[in-house]
C-alpha cells in the first residue's frame, strides 16, 4: 500500500485500484472540485452563487469543499460570494434534517436560508427581510406527493425543488446555482431519465450545467466525484451528513431500483459508472435553446412533437390496441390541440413526462396548482 501521489504509506484504495494516503486523497478531491468549476469557465470573480444543500452525504462534502476553497489565501482561493439554501421537505423528518444542516453551517460560520417545499406554490418566496412567508396550508406538497406512485413523486419533487432553486436565485440576484450531484447520482439519473420519458432532457439533467433557464445556470461541480470518494472524505474529515437518503433499499420507486443497480455496478465494476456519465456528455440536444416554447415545469423545449416517434405516440398506440376506440386519429388530434385527458397540457404547456406526472394528480385543483408556475 503506497500512495500514488507522495509514495508514503497509503491508507485507502479507490475503485479497487488507486491507493492514496489521507492527505493526498483530500487534496485530490478538492482539486477535482476546483478543476470541474475551472475548466468550464462559467464563473466570473466574486460571483454570487446559491449553494443548495439537501443534507445528504454529497451536500455535506460540498459545504466542506466550499469552506476549504474560501479559506485559502493564495491564488487558489475560491472567489465566490456564497448563499446557502436548504429546502425543508414535507414531514417531521424534514424538520430534523434542517436543524442538523443549520448546525453544520453554523460550524463553518455560514448563514443559511430555509425554505419550505410548499413555497413552490408561492410567487414571492423571500420577503425583503429574508424571513419566511407562508400563504398556503403546509400540506399541499404532502398531499400531492403521497397520492401518486413513488416513481412519479420522486420526479415531481426534483422538479419542484429545481423551480425553487431558480426562483430564489433570481430573488437573490445569483446567476449561478451549485447543486451536489455526484457521478453516481448522475449515472442513476441518466438511466432513470430514459426510463421515465425524459430522454430528450439528458443534456441539461446530467451535464455540468443546466442551461434551461435563461438567466440562472445550475452547475454540478461535484459531478466527477463518486459516492465511494464521498464516503472516504466524510470518514477522514469526520463529517456527519444530516440524512442518508442515498442508502441502499430506500423506497420502491423505479429510481431506487435503478439506484441500487448503479450502486452494485460501482461496487463490482467501478469504472462503468463514470462511463455512463461520459456517455451523457456526448448526447447533445438537436435544437438550440433560444426562443423555443418551453415546458412550464421543467423548462425543456417542447418541440419534440416534431419527431417521428415519441413516447406519447407509443402510449397512445398501446391505448388504442387495448381499447375499443376505433377511430384513433381522433385521439392524436386531441394531443395536437393540447386538451388531452390522458396527457393534460401536453406540448402546449408541458413536456411528455411533466404532463404524465400531472395526469396522476386526480384532483383538478392540484393539477392547476402545480401548473401555476406559468406566470413568471
Ligand atoms: Zn500521499
Ligand atoms: Zn417538463
From TrEMBL:
The keyword DNA damage does not apply. GO terms for cellular component: cytosol. GO terms for molecular function: nucleotidyltransferase activity; sulfurtransferase activity; tRNA binding. SUPFAM superfamilies: Adenine nucleotide alpha hydrolases-like. It is found in: Cytoplasm. Keywords: Cytoplasm, tRNA processing. One of its GO terms (biological process) is protein urmylation. Pathway: tRNA modification; 5-methoxycarbonylmethyl-2-thiouridine-tRNA biosynthesis. Pfam families: CTU2 (PF10288). It comes from the Eukaryota. Plays a central role in 2-thiolation of mcm(5)S(2)U at tRNA wobble positions of tRNA(Lys), tRNA(Glu) and tRNA(Gln). May act by forming a heterodimer with NCS6/CTU1 that ligates sulfur from thiocarboxylated URM1 onto the uridine of tRNAs at wobble position. Belongs to the CTU2/NCS2 family. This is Cytoplasmic tRNA 2-thiolation protein 2.
